[in-house]
Design goal:
The protein is an alpha/beta fold. The chain has 13 helices and 9 strands. A 5-stranded parallel sheet has the order 6-5-7-8-9, sandwiched between helices. The two termini are about 35 Å apart.
Amino acid sequence: FFETFFCMACSLKVYVTSGSLGEPGERVATNLARQFPSVEVKVQVFSHLLDEDGLPSVVQEVASEKGMIVNTLVKSSMRYRLNQLAEEHNVPYVDMIDTFMKTMEKELGKPPVEIPGLYRDTANERYQLSKAMKYAVDHDEGARPEEWRLADALILGLPSTGKTMLCAFLGTMGYKVANYTVRPGTPLPDTFEDIPRHRVFGLIMTPEALTQHRTRCLRSTIDADVLKRQGSLLDPHGLNEFNPVSPISGVEPTEYTAPPAIQQEVAFCLDLYQKLEITKLDITKESATSIASEIVHLLGKFLKSASSSFELADVPTVEVDEEGKSDDSGEEPLGLSFSRSSFRRYNPVKNDFNSSFKESMAPPRGNTLYL
């Protein structure tokens, strides 16, 4: 329906109806409109529609503009009336709420309260997001390891495996994530022992993919003038006609892109992850969004298992208020999304799971997840 309607004209006006501000509906409509880049789509919100009296004028305006209605009204009587009016005026109508609400009512066996505007405080949510993103910046490449205990997750990986980008993306989702570059001969900081293993993820790539990726990185970051100033050293591994200095501190130029050296690095990583008993994520062919989704899924799965498997007396409880703050530490619980969940038994600041609990929830040895 959407595709057929959009192709009938070079522009379209989409009107979002809401009993509150209408921001969620506007955001969804705008994002979906981007799926039709050749069409000019304008999104307008009719906000604070609290009774049926204002609906006829809304539908009349939409009809006169030959637009379509995207409904987000939570009151069932208003949704029904709006649908009627849209049919009478032959206005395209999409209800984003009705099917979802009815299904939830059926599954829960309880009717919805139908009160508009019951969503998380936007200002507080943005504040939490900004804190998560700042945490990713402040704890990039192993910085401030003494604060890893406050992280929702810790990412390990070889140089040039996308750790920074992944942490930044998870930060936009409200998760505080640190990363650390592992290298042969360099031990992990002592503070690593304070991090529960279920919150540590090791990135891995095939040697061939990592070689190609590092070569592309060098080609895109070092210009011809820099290469000339460094001298015309012939590159035995095919990087143009020069062999630039590696951007990785302490690594010789030939080691950074040399296949034998990279094979040794990957083998070292696999052995390290095996010894640490952490979850390995094969990122050879996956995007940052896919990897981030899998990490969030695994963290959430752990919390769900923890909540269902242990009595309240087994694990110390942290009281959390509506803004997601802990009474005993002042720090937020695991991630912005986790702060919305009902799993409150794990203290993310003090890591108060006992050793048997950690062992029971640790991933299997050598477990690799191909995303």
